[in-house]
Structures are given as structure tokens and as C-alpha cells.
Amino acid sequence: MLLAACSALLSACSAVNVLNAVIPSGGYTLRANLAYGSDVDQHLDVYVPVQPWTGPGPRPTVMFVHGGSWDSGSKDMYKFVAEAITSRGWTAVVPDYRKYPRVHWPVFMDDCTDAFQWAGQHATEWGGDANRMIVMGHSAGAHMAALLALDSRYLARFPQPVRPAAMIGLSGPYDFLPIIGPEIQEIFSTAPDLNETQPIHFAHAGAPPLLLLHGAVDNTVWPKNTQNLAARLRVLGAPVEEHIYPGIDHIRMVVTLARPFRFRYVVLDDIQRFVDTTVVHQASLPSGFSSAHSSLGDPATALR
After folding, report:
1. pTM
2. Of the four listed, 18, 108, 129, 276, which is most buried by Cβ atoms within 10 Å?
3. 269-279, pLDDT tens digit by residue?
């Protein structure tokens, strides 16, 4: 009941403030509002665990890209996600980025890429390494994280780019053509070919390991987005792990990471196993693990 109530309220900034207020802050040091560009929205926060890293190799860094339909949200709303990341011993980087209506596609993707490059170039400052950079996102942020991991054009403008060692997507829209909804249509209206906005279009055998997570009762972004991308990657022989969680909706997926609720769900544990396997110990994923349940019908307003 408490988790359901929190999920329903999370869309309100006041509810997010309440959730973040109960998150302990003693486990990390915060470096706030660091500029990765010259725009007011091109800033990020870095959360560094207080406890020394005891795993093999440098400490992994996870950059979490927040969601919000590419038109809303901010890094300040996701302290609870950063705390979840640092609780597993990894550094968390949470950027802001420019959004609609200030910009259209692909400007927010350029910001995401710039933030990731900045974090990789500075990772040694917190005991990290550019080769252990993970990109993670929820909803629209998962869409952006997937494009960064799969579409090499975003990294092409850097002579020595920092490449994602792995990608983690929560409730991401990866295969949502035709686009439904006038505002989302407008956000992507600058694309000469809408296929270029779809992560599934860039699936390839050489992709970094991907962990794709979705709630089975997500009526905002249909679970088939995760199922379709995972299936395409498996056919191509790319390393991918997929989980569809029963009873979890769009917002609840990210709420499960918060300390008050994470003991009830295995989402953060699944993320830790994935990071430990693919980045910390640099082992190969199996030929494509799937933990899928039936996807449900969704309203026409959802991202199909």
C-alpha cells in the first residue's frame, strides 16, 4: 500500500521531496551543479560513496539519465536513485539536459552524450575509470541511454570518445513508431527519418551489454518496447538481459530503487548482478537471458 501510494504521488515535486527527505545522505559525498557545458541546463551532480571501493579494478561510475517525456524533470528529483547506486559501491552521476520546448531532437541527445563524456574524462577524480562507465536511464532517459549505447553517431564527434561499458534501461521507449501524441510528434519533428529516433533501429552485434527492465503493467511505455529490443539484440548475438516484472507500472519501476521500498523487489539486486558480471568482473552474459511475463493491452496514449 505504501509503495502504491508513493508511486501515485511521485509525479508531484512535493512528493519527490518527501521521498528524497527520507533517504540517508551519510553514505556519499555530493559534488553538486558541475558544469559539463555552457548552458544553464548543462549541469550534473556527482555522488561518490564514502566507503572505499573493495572490488577488483577501479570503481564503476553509473550515469543516470532521468525521464519526463523529454520535456520535464530535473536531476534534483533523483537523489533516491543516486543513493541506490552509491549503496552498491558505485559512483552516481545525474545530469540535467535541455528539454522541449527549448529544444527538439536531437539536442537533448547531444547533452546526454556531452555529460557522459565529461563524466568519463573526470572519473579518475573519484577513483573511477573511463572504461568502467555505465549509462542508465528511466523512461525517456532510458531511450537516451539506449541511443548513446547503440547509435555510434553520437560519439563520432569526439576524437577519443568514452564509450559505455554497459547500458541499463528502466521502462524505456525503444520501438515506438508510429509516434502517438502531438507533443511527442513535435519533439521529434526535426528528425529527417523517424527511424533515427528509435534505439531498436541501431541494434547491432557489437553493442555493449544491455540490461532491459520493464513493468508488466506499464501503461505509459508498453513492455513490448523492451521485449522487441531484447529480441532484436538476441537475434543479432548481442549481449542482453531482459526482465519483465509482474505488478509493476511505469513510475513504480524507478520507485523500487528507493531505500524504503527496495527490500520488496529484486530490481536493484538484478542491476547489481548485471554490473558485477559485465563490468566489475568483465564476464560475458549468457546468450540472452529473459524473464518475461505476459504484456498487457495499453491505452492509445502510451508509447507503443
Report:
1. 0.91
2. 108
3. 999 999 999 99
